[in-house]
Amino acid sequence: QSHQSELEAAIAQLSGELAEHALLDQAECPELPAGTEPTPACAARAAHIDATLAEVTDALAARSRQKLRASERAHEHQRVLEAFESLVDDELAFVDVHPEGSVVRILVAKLYNENTTTLSPLGISIVERVASALDGLRDHHLDVIGHTDDVSVSSVTLPSNWELGFAYAVGVVRMLEDLGVTLDTHASSRAGNDPLLPPVDAEARRMNRRVELVLTPLEIELPVTETPHGPHPLTPPDDPAPEAPEAPEVAP
Q: Is residue 165 within 8 Å of residue 190, measured between CB atoms?
């Protein structure tokens, strides 16, 4: 959003400069007879007008590409919403916007037997339905991220919350692979570092223990349209669609 605002401000400033210099050019540098060289001042002003016009044109093209990306993101998010609609309706999953696309959140309590990393019968059913939903999203990359609460764990097999979160993610990924899901998939853990809610009580901690499926559309190359730099009427830009904030880095 801040980048969009900066771009809009730059376009407005450049457009104002262009109009101002065009008026000065008409007043101080009238059209010369053929074969007559302009004064150095007029030549410099003409060069500045051309450069400013080029900047405005490039800025408008950049803004158009940003709007197209925002529109594509909205379209892809709608596809994810529709694919997971039944799981959301059954209150087994939640779908939200993510900086890189869309995120599907499923509580650990729905997926795993209590105090284990073994999928429960309900969890198996959920992952089977997730696999069906992903069948229509094969043009996406899938990041499966395990989250724990803030209560530390320590055992021979799970020395810390990092390993526990990773076990949550890997359990889902392995079953998806067994079910034939072929998306490019990556599993990781955030331990208890990204809570959804402040961990003030048992219910908040239950909500924080979750597996997230982050679906990122495979990169779509946008066409680059060449716009010749030259005098042309400038139209005020439409209100831009909001740009998603930059994605946070995921710890290994």
A: yes
Superfamily of domain covering 84-217 = OmpA-like domain (3.30.1330.60)
* Phi, psi (deg, nearest 5) at residue 152: -70, 145
Amino acid at the residue 242: P
| Residue tagged 């959003």 (tokens) | 1
Query: Rg of the chain over CA atoms, in angstroms?
Result: 27
Q: pLDDT, tens digit, for every residue of 51-91?
A: 766 776 777 777 766 676 666 778 889 999 999 999 999 99
Report how far residue 176's alpha carbon sits from residue 173's, in angstroms, rounded to the nearest whole number. 5
User: Rounded to 5 degrees, what angle do the CA atoms 9, 10, 13 make?
Assistant: 85
CA dihedral 57, 62, 67, 69 (to 10 degrees): 150
pLDDT digits (tens, 9 = 90+) for 81-137: 999 999 999 999 999 988 888 999 999 999 999 999 999 999 999 999 999 999 999
Tell me the C-alpha distance between 38 and 33, whole Å: 10
**Strand ranges across the sheet with 210-217:** 94-98, 101-107, 210-217, 140-147, 185-191
